[in-house]
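User:
Care to share a sequence and structure tokens?

Assistant:
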Amino acid sequence: MISPPGEEGAGEEAAFRLCAYDYELPPERIAARPARPRDSARLLVLERGSGRIEHRRFREIGAFLRAGDLLVLNDTAVLPARLLGTKETGGRVEVLLLDPVGGRLSADGRRWSGPCLARSAKPVRPGMRLAFAGGLRGQVLEITPGVCRVTLEAEEEVFAALERVGHVPLPPYLGRADDAADRADYQTVYAAHPGAVAAPTAGLHFTRRLLSALRAAGVETAFLTLHVGYGTFQPLRDPDVRRHRLHDEGYRLPPETAGAIARARDRGGRVIAVGTTVARVLEFAADGRGRVRAGSGRCDLFILPGHRFRVLDALVTNFHLPRSSLLLLVSAFAGRERVLAAYRTAVREGYRFYSYGDAMLIL
């Protein structure tokens, strides 16, 4: 594996300052809708060893892959985990489940409790009852700084009720409510296991036809599940990023995927993570020799510059928000200065940013 270019002396310390991960982005570069078809999105290819940049379309990604490579994808499915309802006082309330799968679910599936964000004109209070569409009821159990714990009850399974009456939890920077198109757009074509409250956005560019073409060319695919929650998108606030801690998120790495990674290594193929969520799980599950262990649990790995990557050879990713843990991970993989230079190029060349935006392939 190629290590990212080092930053000597004062530069090493700069890599841990939150302000070092800022960049200028005109608002019109934020994508409000995805490219259609998905694989017509633009693709910036960055060689991290040389800094060379090439501009392509995502459907051309196969030109940079070879037979024997392994794409690892996150097959989580986004739940419509945003609920609009009313408080017992009659005021409107919006509730976002932060970790649906990590919450407590009753044996019959009709009662759930877990962490949420609640927004209303006046703050919610412990004990307050909430009402949502479709007979879904809630109650605020407790409030901690920035987060509250809520119980939900339904006449059917709570997750089934969410599918009926919930809304797609679009990122707030889009500045709009979800619509019917978002139900499909904000979901990968291979989504299989509901539980995320945000999409693994690097995977949104793949179509079934593109995946079939890559497999026909000898590029293998394997899947893991990380239910993307608040931890991935929690804002970084401490000026020293080393003091930040991520919320943990539920993951599952099947034995079939661990075996596929070992075989790719044995034949000299590259392991290519599709998205930062996949990168985090692979590095979290790897031992000191880079062997990936199958298993499930909670992943809280925060990858910073200086991290020694043990599994990844390449990364497919989107263009991320300034001062985000996602941008730090990409910078750890390819070098902060090189990544920010690529971002400046992308802005200049008119790339579209964030969840519905264009993609990068870092080799």
